[in-house]
Write a structure and sequence with these properties.
Blueprint lengths: L4 H6 L8 H9 L3 H7 L3 H16 L3 H10 L2 H20 L3
Helix pairs in contact: 2-3, 4-5
Length: about 90
């Protein structure tokens, strides 16, 4: 697997470090292994899956969910989550 340029240059792990290995593990059916590579998948995969479903099947419920996921407060909340994840994984080696 290619190394993370961010981690190679700066010496700290970015929020996405381990995601490529996690995706390979998910595709192989190894969910727990994938989560160990990047714990943020516990939030990211369901959010992105729901967003993709709301785009692919725009029913009333899914469309409302997609609208919520694309709202400004939700984007700020997810951005804050990514920032906190970045700090935690570098301070505590998560």
């Amino acid at each position: 697997m290619p190394r993370c340029i961010f981690a190679t240059v700066l010496g700290i792990r970015c929020p996405g470090c381990g995601t490529q290995r996690a995706i390979v593990s998910l595709c192989s059916g190894h969910f727990l292994e994938a989560v160990r590579y990047n714990y943020s998948l516990l939030l990211t995969v369901p959010v992105l899956s729901l967003l993709a479903l709301s785009i692919a099947f725009p029913t009333r419920v899914l469309s409302a969910a997609g609208t919520f996921l694309k709202s400004t407060p939700m984007l700020y909340t997810y951005g804050a989550f990514v920032l906190v994840w970045f700090v935690l994984r570098n301070l505590f080696g998560v």
